[in-house]
Design goal:
The chain has helices at 2-30, 34-64, 69-111, 135-140; strands spanning 122-123, 129-130. By secondary structure, the chain is mostly helical. The protein has one domain (2-113): Methane Monooxygenase Hydroxylase, Chain G, domain 1. The protein has a two-stranded antiparallel sheet with strand order 1-2. Helix 1 packs parallel to helix 3 (69-111). The termini are far apart.
Length: 141
């Protein structure tokens, strides 16, 4: 049982490191510091691999013995912390996707790749909607 408590302590420490790393990742993304973001990825992968190993061992031990109430309480606390880390990871993913979409839209606008489904409405001086014309219209002129 003491081995399980020790593993929970290690898991809690790793979870705290993961939470901190996800916060650093978010700040790097928010500040558009891709070098910092990229440097965090191997650290995150190693930390997740270590966490997976510890959690697998904890689950095996919890299933094989009758765990003390304090151990179960700590396990639930660990699970809640890992769910919070999952939410932070999702937040970072959403930020990446939004930035990617904005970049793709900007590139499409610069290249002139307008199509009827994803084109942007442009308003003229009178406030009327004026869809951009295709490139061929310029070539014909």
């Amino acid at each position: 049982m003491t081995a399980l408590r020790l593993q929970l302590t290690v898991a809690d420490q790793q979870c705290a490191k993961l939470r901190h790393l996800l916060e650093e990742e978010f700040e790097a993304l928010r500040n558009r510091n891709l070098d910092a973001f990229e440097s965090l990825q191997p650290v995150k992968a190693a930390l997740l691999a270590d966490l997976a190993t510890v959690v697998e061992e904890q689950c095996r031990q919890l299933a094989s013995v009758d765990a003390a109430p304090d151990v179960l309480t700590r396990w639930e606390g660990f699970r809640a912390a890992m769910l919070e880390c999952r939410d932070l990871h999702r937040r970072n993913e959403i930020l990446i996707l939004r930035k990617r979409d904005a970049i793709e839209s900007a590139l499409a606008t610069l290249v002139g790749g307008f199509d009827s489904v994803s084109s942007v409405d442009v308003y003229d001086r009178l406030g009327r909607t004026n869809r951009p014309r295709r490139r061929n219209a310029y070539a014909q002129a």
